[in-house]
Q: What sequence folds into this?
């Protein structure tokens, strides 16, 4: 049992033969991810990285049994790629692409919602990794040592930072889910936290948010309502971000009093989450949180 | 991307959305010409002069050192000239500009639409924006127009109405009628609004907007619905398919350093602190700003150099940060994943040597792939650069640098 991806996942890469797709497909294969092929329309029937290239996702599902996809397709075509994967019956769709227009994502998300049982991760995310089993993303695999701490994060490099601190503190990672920094994402914080709360291989969770939106608050309230079953260490980036300015990520913008870092952190604290003000303290706070929980 | 009121109204007009007519002017003489033209077109005798900046709250905002407002009424052509003079070349401070305000280089000369008639004119509020939690557009309407909507939401939340749009089918007729009834419209005004809203929504969707705000929306004394003001933002991610809208970009409204950074493909936001920072990844960049604050400093900027950081981007980043005279120290924080720390370290050393004499302390924190090697390169470079591997150590070095 693991969350979203494991050693049996049959992964395809959409945008397989592009620069980004090729590079990261190679990295994933080296990590040991079961990459069964890729999709590049018009290049079907050829081979790339010693794996078959398909014209459509449907062919990849039928001929290679693909059940997980990772999307590197350029922003203008990415929403289309998500919907193609959903239509072909892929159940886990991980979208790395940054810069997809909001209206496109609105359509794609609705399309996914209308079909049951599909999980969309991202867009604008580093992907998902279950150490020792599968890396379906762009994260540096070696940072993520296997263990029993789950990570949910809106940010890429900050996820690596958190994983590194967890590992240096003597623990390891069960699954890390990069949910993405866009205003519209497939799996909001709460849904990803829920997956890890229900995962028997996860003992505790690191939840990393950013300014903008209400996902962290919703997740925090859900954690409390469900009895704080596992300790959660939380951080929200952007305590010093001025209102109204977009901080890199399309979704990272303070729009009102409720979506500031301070407001989110206050709600998280009220809900029994171990909130750190400095991102440098994630690892040691997790050690403390685990001790408190068992006392 | 934010655009000006007069540009927003051009979009509205294209979609048949009725607006308070106006003409943009960049000199007092042009303003008088504009007023004359408006008089011919609309018969108006009263004009409204509106400062064009990318910020709301202009009616209540004041020009620096005066009691002059960002929106003024002119009853004669002489007054048009005089009031335009009071605005152009001066800095307007509103609730949304921050204390530094914004320089006004254009005004919109608008026809007065508040003429008395059978009914009292009534100001309403209408906006369309993205509801992130529901992943769809939402229309927000209120009978309390002309005021700060956040204030209305706080004090009289029952006077704010929301209507969510199903992305698969778009705005439906019943929804437009529902909003019209909620706004208390009847007769000609009701009919006018039911035709107004779908046109507005079409303009919103087809422009890939992320915000349309009309405050006030006016029901005139003869029952017409007019957009008197217009605040429009376009989704940056969608600009590639709207070259016509991208042309609306006004560089004068942006910070010159931010414009320069953009040209080097750097994601930079200027802030007013004393510690500059350069980071890979937006989340880590924000987190690094927080670390600076907790170390006793204030972040001077947000700067994400992205996944492919190299000597060129590091140099460009350095140069931009160093142009900010408030910067007393720089923290470089890179988590090397795909990008190796030794490459970043070499990039830092190379950039440093190229720029020459840097007088402020630089702290380089490299973690991840080849972190030790990166630290060695920094330490052996002979430059006045301090290195750290653990984020906490970097924070301590920043605290020390500022304390000096």
A:
């Amino acid at each position: 049992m693991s969350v979203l991806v494991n050693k049996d996942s049959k992964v395809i890469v959409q945008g397989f033969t592009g620069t980004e797709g090729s590079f990261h497909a190679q990295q994933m294969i080296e990590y040991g991810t079961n990459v069964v092929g890729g999709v590049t329309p018009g290049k079907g029937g050829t081979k790339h990285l010693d794996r078959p290239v398909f014209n459509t996702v449907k062919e990849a599902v039928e001929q290679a049994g693909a059940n997980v996809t990772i999307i590197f397709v350029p922003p203008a075509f990415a929403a289309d790629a998500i919907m193609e994967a959903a239509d072909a019956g892929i159940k886990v769709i991980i979208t790395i692409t940054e810069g997809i227009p909001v209206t496109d994502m609105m359509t794609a998300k609705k399309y996914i919602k209308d079909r049951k049982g599909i999980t969309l991760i991202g867009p604008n995310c580093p992907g998902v990794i279950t150490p020792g089993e599968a890396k379906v993303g762009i994260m540096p695999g070696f940072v993520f040592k296997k263990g029993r701490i789950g990570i949910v994060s809106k940010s890429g490099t900050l996820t690596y930072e958190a994983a590194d601190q967890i590992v240096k503190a003597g623990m390891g990672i069960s699954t890390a889910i990069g949910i993405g920094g866009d205003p519209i994402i497939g799996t909001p914080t709460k849904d990803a936290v829920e997956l890890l709360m229900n995962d028997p291989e996860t003992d505790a969770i690191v939840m990393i948010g950013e300014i903008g939106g209400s996902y962290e608050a919703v997740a925090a309230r859900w954690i409390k309502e469900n009895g704080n079953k596992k300790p959660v260490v939380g951080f929200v980036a952007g305590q010093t971000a001025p209102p109204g300015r977009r901080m890199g990520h399309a979704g990272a913008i303070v729009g009102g009093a409720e979506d500031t870092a301070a407001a989110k952190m206050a709600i998280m604290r009220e809900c029994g989450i171990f909130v750190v003000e400095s991102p440098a303290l994630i690892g040691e706070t997790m050690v403390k949180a685990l001790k408190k929980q068992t006392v | 991307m934010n655009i000006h009121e007069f540009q927003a109204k051009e979009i509205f007009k294209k979609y048949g959305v009725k607006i308070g007519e106006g003409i943009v002017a960049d000199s007092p003489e042009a303003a008088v010409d504009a007023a004359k033209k408006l008089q011919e077109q609309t018969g108006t005798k009263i004009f409204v002069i509106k400062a064009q900046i990318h910020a709301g709250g202009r009616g209540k905002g004041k020009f620096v050192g005066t009691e002059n407002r960002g929106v003024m009424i002119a009853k004669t052509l002489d007054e048009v000239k005089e009031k335009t003079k009071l605005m152009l070349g001066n800095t307007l401070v509103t609730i949304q500009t921050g204390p530094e305000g914004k320089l006004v280089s254009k005004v919109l000369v608008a026809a007065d639409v508040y003429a008395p008639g059978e009914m009292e004119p009534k100001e309403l509020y209408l906006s369309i924006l993205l509801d992130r939690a529901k992943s769809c557009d939402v229309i927000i309407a209120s009978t309390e127009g002309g005021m700060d909507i956040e204030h209305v939401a706080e004090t009289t939340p029952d006077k704010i109405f929301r209507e969510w749009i199903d992305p698969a089918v778009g705005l439906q007729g019943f929804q437009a009628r529902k909003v019209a009834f909620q706004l208390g419209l009847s007769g000609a005004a009701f009919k006018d609004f039911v035709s107004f809203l779908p046109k507005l929504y079409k303009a919103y969707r087809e422009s890939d907007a992320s915000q349309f705000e009309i405050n006030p929306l006016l029901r005139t004394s003869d029952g017409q619905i007019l957009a008197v003001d217009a605040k429009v933002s376009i989704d940056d991610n969608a600009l590639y398919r709207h070259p016509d809208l991208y042309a609306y970009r006004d560089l004068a409204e942006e910070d010159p350093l931010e414009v320069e950074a953009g040209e080097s493909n750097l994601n930079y936001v200027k802030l007013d602190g004393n510690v500059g920072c350069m980071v890979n990844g937006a989340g880590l960049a924000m987190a690094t700003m927080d670390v600076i604050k907790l170390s006793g400093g204030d972040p001077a900027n947000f700067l994400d150099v992205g996944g492919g950081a190299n000597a060129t981007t590091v140099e460009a980043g350095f140069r931009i940060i160093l142009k900010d005279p408030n910067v007393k120290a720089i923290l470089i924080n890179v988590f090397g994943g795909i990008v190796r720390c030794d490459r970043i370290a070499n990039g830092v050393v190379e950039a440093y040597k190229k720029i020459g004499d840097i007088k402020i302390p630089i702290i380089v924190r490299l973690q991840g792939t080849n972190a030790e090697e990166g630290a060695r390169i920094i330490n052996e470079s002979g430059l006045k650069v301090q290195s750290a591997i653990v984020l906490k150590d970097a924070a301590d070095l920043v605290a020390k640098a500022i304390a000096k």
Observations:
- Chain B has 13 helices and 20 strands.
- Chain B touches chain A through 58 residues (CB under 8 Å).
